[in-house]
């Protein structure tokens, strides 16, 4: 599931004006968590979310410091401002966690996701799928007489938009990596 962009000034009729039962605005946040790269760390971080009923919209993990044996976990989650603060505080208290950054509040960031989309089609649907792929800068990485696999990189919203356009043209399957994000600047 892709992250939602929540606008503080949205009207109550907007699909993006999500509120909890108490009327508080639900926001999407991207968190970067630097952890020890050791067995069980990911399970502990995920356990924190599941044990408290917090949802994860996107999750990526990779080692980022081979000599220091550190990994970066990028989590997109959502909740009220109070819930987001609780998540950050609870993550920071975990023993294998070295840093917790809320990229949503720390300033501009770059977020990208990789997706593979399999589309089956013949005739006009096939031609239209190729035309849209060109517009969205998706690459054909596999082709048969009856299907394509497109590879695209972009924001979660861009991938969602491309997938929606491919649905009526024969979208069969989608695989997504989850969000990778970095703060802009120094």
From TrEMBL:
Sequence ranges assigned to domain ACT in this UniProt record: 30-105
GO CC terms: cytosol
Enzyme category, top tier: transferase
Cytoplasm keyword on record: no
Pathway named in the protein's UniProt entry: Amino-acid biosynthesis; L-isoleucine biosynthesis; L-isoleucine from 2-oxobutanoate: step 1/4; Amino-acid biosynthesis; L-valine biosynthesis; L-valine from pyruvate: step 1/4
EC number: 2.2.1.6
One Gene Ontology biological process: isoleucine biosynthetic process
PROSITE patterns on file: ACT (PS51671)
Catalytic activity: 2 pyruvate + H(+) = (2S)-2-acetolactate + CO2
Keywords: Amino-acid biosynthesis, Branched-chain amino acid biosynthesis, Transferase
Coiled-coil regions listed: none
Subunit composition and interactions: Dimer of large and small chains.
Record-stated family: Belongs to the acetolactate synthase small subunit family.
Protein name: Acetolactate synthase small subunit
